[in-house]
Specification:
- The protein is mostly beta strands.
- Helix content is 0%, strand content 58%.
- It contains no helices and eleven strands.
- Strands 2, 4, 5, 6, 9, 10 and 11 form a seven-stranded mixed sheet that branches.
- A hairpin with a 5-residue loop joins β5 and β6.
């Protein structure tokens, strides 16, 4: 079993910054790719960014240059640094871990709310 626990969400003014953390525990593979996704009210969940076990990153176009994903493998933690936040970034941000070992393993955290508002 794998547990993903997000933290760091909250209320921030437009132009501000937040840093989200996702701590993984349990039987998570060292090969797991980690990612952040978000879901705004009335919208489908969308990719924010992913990072492989080797550190390769991928970002949604609207997040490039503003968001940075990173991971600390020793701490089994993935981070999302969000700068220049806009009201449109308001959403529940969820952490994801996935890897393939005989079968696809895919886990989600419970999510953390990010609200960008003045």
């Amino acid at each position: 079993q794998v547990q993903l626990v997000e933290s760091g969400g909250g209320l921030v003014q437009p132009g501000g910054s937040l840093r989200l953390s996702c701590a993984a525990s349990g039987s998570i593979s060292r090969a797991a790719a980690m990612g952040w996704y978000r879901q705004a009210p009335g919208k489908q969940r969308e990719l924010v960014a992913t990072i492989t076990s080797g550190g390769s990153t991928n970002y949604a176009d609207s997040m490039k240059g503003r968001f940075t994903i990173s991971r600390d493998n020793a701490k089994n933690t993935v981070y999302l640094q969000m700068n220049s936040l806009e009201p449109e970034d308001t959403a529940v941000y969820s952490c994801n871990a996935r890897w393939f070992e005989a079968t696809l393993h895919n886990y989600w955290g419970q999510g953390t709310q990010v609200t960008v508002s003045s």
